[in-house]
Amino acid sequence: MHDFAQILANGLMAGAVYGLVAVSLALVFGVLEIPQFAFGAHAMIAAYALAYLTANEFSYVTALVLSMLVGMGLGAIVQYLVFEPLRDKPHATLFIAAFGLLLILQGLALLVFGPNPMVVEPPIAGAVEIMGARVTYQRLIIIAGVFVAVVGLNLFLTKTRLGSAIRAAGQNPFGALVVGVSPRKIAMLTMAVGSGLAALAGGLLAPISQVYPTMGDFLVLKAFIIVVMAGMGSINGALIAGLFVGITESFGSAYFSPHMRDAYSIIFLIAVLIFKPSGVFGKAGRVG
Amino acid sequence: MERKSLWVWLIVFFALVPLFSGSDYHLQLATQLLIFVILFIGVDIAVGHAGLVSVAHGALFGVGAYATAILTVDHGLNFWLSIPVGIALAAIFGLLIGILTLKLAGHYFVIATMAFALLIHTAAKNLPITHGELGITNISKPGVLGLFSGNQALSFYFLMAIATLVVVVVYFWLMRSAFGRRLRAIRDNPLLADALGIDISTAKLLAFVASASIAAFAGSFHAVFLTYINPAVTGYELGFTALMALIIGGRTTLGGIIVGAFIFAILPEMLRDAEQYRLVIMGAILIVVVQRAPAGIYGKLVDWAGLIRKRRP
């Protein structure tokens, strides 16, 4: 029974991080139709920013907020420089551009920080025991941070004018243009918000993982699978599917084989593709 | 597709490569280039002609490589007999992947193919038959090379050149046939193609299976070329590389495929001295080319050549 709680806690933690990256992808994917393969690298850049700031006497929370701002700025810049010129180009070119961006960001990280990983000390050391499971405070911070971020995103998208504009542009870009929503500005805003969420994932993960140039690769692969599993345009669905994948991997690793970890999510993806190709939470609208 | 003179130029060029550079290192680079050309031709049938943007072909290439490695090393089968087995296996995988993913639209198709590539990669890392992470060593070169005394690297290069020529001929024959025209019709206007009575799903599935088979064919040669393979050969990086090479080089043209193979087989070697800048340079090339030359570098070259020709009196 203790094992069960422990495995569940581990799965929840991993799933929350997967879910957050998947949410950021689902937002950018749903509104802009850009497969932002480089979001893992955005998370990595934010983690480096956080590592740099905490090493220079900033508190973890301040550094986390600042690294999210770095992520948002990075998102706005890459939208302007990389993806805006590719508006209305074929799908494949967007994939290639995103992959090129990934290589550039990893290359820059390697040039600036070198190949040796950086370490971030957890802000609160130690662990609590919950129903027999030993959970470090950093893991609780991760789960809390993810839920706050996703609730915040929901409020932003439904309660604010800017959020409504993003949803409008996602549902009908032409109609949004007609009522005076600038597609360029909305695209930059959406990419900035998505990138900020990816950056948060990187910043939350930094204290329990190490910080190195390819740290985001596995995250983004998983997140893409989760987005397809959840279905078109479902942001909260992406979080739920992310939690599901995290828990599945945790239990699969414990009871079947830890080596087949990467296969579990794909097996579920295949099942989804067979029985409900539009995704578990897929619907006609794109974002909402 | 392209002018006939290109053929003559290419055959002359690849026949003369050994004269330019006698060293084994250069011959091996040229051999690697030809293996990539075969793989990219396979991917081009799906990506370029049928518009099916797949990143699963790296893994299907790995299926061919593993089929040859397992059959020749563990079961003592002849290399040439292992090739059809690899092709058949990849065709079955291609069929399964195709059935499950072809109904997905746009990006979702790409991501689903990536997921299957990851599944094949996980299997290669863990199954006893593939020897797990260790991979398979001591894969011997095809016996036919023993007939030619002298430089083994040179013989293998020419063997590869002949295999490439065969694939190129098949590629042109297939893509200039009614089947190839149907694929491009579906790619450019699926509604019209449907209205004309083209069986869209069957044509797409056949294209996917054909491209999977060619990728596996390349993989079989890759295994004997390296004499050693491990799960990295099924990694998603290779699938992305193939896709990038096609987009950067230029889709549906042999010239574009060769330019792409140059960029991904030769350029990384040339950038060896600038190792720390390699990622940034490759990334920048990718972004600049997709922004400035949507038809790829070869397409741009053809455009420029056309401009020069027009200016002549």
Structural commentary:
The complex is a heterodimer of chains A (288) and B (313). Chain A has helices at residues 2-32, 39-55, 60-83, 91-113, 137-159, 161-171, 173-178, 183-205, 217-230, 235-255, 261-275, and strands spanning 127-130, 133-136. Chain A is an all-alpha fold and 288 residues long. In chain A, strands 1-2 form a two-stranded antiparallel sheet. The longest helix of chain A is centred in the first third of the chain and has 31 residues, at 2-32. The termini of chain A are far apart. The relative contact order of chain A is 0.21. Chain B is mostly helical. Chain B has a domain at 24-235. Chain B has helices spanning 4-20, 24-49, 57-74, 79-101, 106-126, 152-176, 178-188, 190-195, 200-226, 236-249, 254-270, 278-292, 296-311. The relative contact order of chain B is 0.18. At the A-B interface, helix 4, helix 9 and helix 11 of A face helix 5, helix 10 and helix 12 of B.
CATH classification, class level of chain A: Mainly Alpha
Number of helices of chain A: 11
Q: Could you describe the largest sheet of chain A, including whether it forms a barrel?
A: 2 strands, antiparallel
Mean pLDDT of chain A: 88
What are the secondary-structure elements of chain B, in order, as H or E? HHHHHHHHHHHHH
Unreliable segments of 5+ consecutive residues of chain A: 284-288
**What structural class is derived from the secondary structure elements of chain B?**
mainly alpha
Which consecutive residue ranges of chain B, at least 5 long each, have pLDDT under 50? none
Radius of gyration of chain B: 19 Å
> Which class best fits the helix and strand makeup of chain A?
mainly alpha
Helix content of chain B: over 70%
Which CATH architecture of chain A is right? Orthogonal Bundle
Q: What multimeric state do the chains show?
A: heterodimer
What is the percentage of strand-forming residues of chain A? Answer: under 5%
Sheet with the most strands: spatial strand order of chain A: 1-2
The main β sheet of chain B shows up as: none
Order of helices and strands of chain A: HHHHEEHHHHHHH
General form of chain B: globular
Q: How many structural domains does the protein architecture of chain A include?
A: 1
N→C terminal distance of chain B: 27 Å
Summed up, the helix count of chain B is 13
